[in-house]
Amino acid sequence: MKSACRDNHQTFRHAVFRRILRVYLSCVVATGIVAAARGDFIETYVDRTDVGLWHCSTGVPRIIETSGGNPGAYLQQGGFSSSIPTWASISMRFQPGVSDPYKIDSIYTGDWTSIGVTSIIADLNVIQVATWTTDRAVTLELLQMDETGFNINYDATYTLPDLPQPPVGWQTYSFPVDANSPTIPQGWVFTRGDGTPGTDAEWSPFLHRIDLTGIGFYKPGFGYPSLGTWILGIDNIEIDFQTGPSPTPTSTATATASPTVTPSATPRATPSPRSHPTPVPRPTR
Questions:
Q1: What percent of the residues of the chain are helix, what percent strand, and what percent coil, each to the nearest 5?
Q2: DSSP class of 150
Q3: Which is deepest, 37, 134, 157, 262, by most CB within 10 Å?
Q4: Which CATH number covers residue 70?
Q5: Per-residue pLDDT at 99
Q6: What's residue 243's pLDDT?
Q7: 232 DSSP β-pair partners
Q8: pTM for the structure as a whole
């Protein structure tokens, strides 16, 4: 009976609610104990929401295109130069007082430990390549700033395999996070702001306050040329979590520019079209 319940749940999950906000309860075990709730939030841009204000630069317009995504609507930004082209979402705590149209508090930053974030997944498209080198990769970077917002407390990166050729076309990139892990999860490079290694005991406290989340085409510590201009697309930005209340996207905005930031990430499989249900807002904390 329990096996049938799990099978039915998996079929329903993958066929209907894959990559949209969902909170569910596991099958009830014989003792009556219920497993912890799980869920996720995904930004599809299908209804022109712009929850995380993702951007690569503050100097050129961002456009929510109504078609051409994976599938449907997606966010595009182009006409900027960068040695490390990166999509980033930054909180209001990042460099307070500095004029920036793309600071916002959303599910993509903030307290990831309390809701038990388990992974980040995003679809990226390199529409126009500036300068590519064989040692580029996709990197997810997370920053926690100090109380002033101008100095880094902690920096964590997770880099996927090298991409010898530009990944033109939609590709899906998946990064494990495990905010409630008692140790630094495998594959992560976790350091303090002074460059010294972070400890297992500091991992979960670090994820209690994320101030910048970035996904970029680079590897930390590598230098790249900054020639030509990029046109990049991003779609289906998904954050999966284990516990706590349903995520709350803050009020949306329709901005047309983008701040320059330096984050990282890497591909997981060939792109596959996915349904684009409307994101469901989470309640205000």
A1: 10, 35, 55
A2: S
A3: 157
A4: 2.60.120.260
A5: 84
A6: 61
A7: 77, 126
A8: 0.75
Burial grade of 29 (CB within 10 A; 0-12, 13-18, 19 or more): exposed
- Tally of domains in the chain: 1
Dist CA 127 CA 129 (whole Å): 7
What is the spatial distance between Cα 129 and Cα 223, in angstroms, rounded to a whole number?
17
Q: Which amino acid is at 88?
A: A
Provide φ and ψ at 9, rounded to 5°: -65, -45
Question: Can you give the residue range of the structural domain that contains 53?
Answer: 40-269
Q: What is the mean pLDDT of each run of 10 residues along the chain (285 residues)?
A: 40 36 31 51 95 96 97 97 98 93 96 96 98 96 97 98 96 96 97 97 96 98 95 98 54 37 34 33 29
Residues 6+ apart with CB under 8 A from 139: 157, 158, 159, 160, 214, 215, 216, 217, 218, 219, 220, 263, 264, 265, 266
Answer whether 63's CB lies under 8 Å from 77's CB: yes
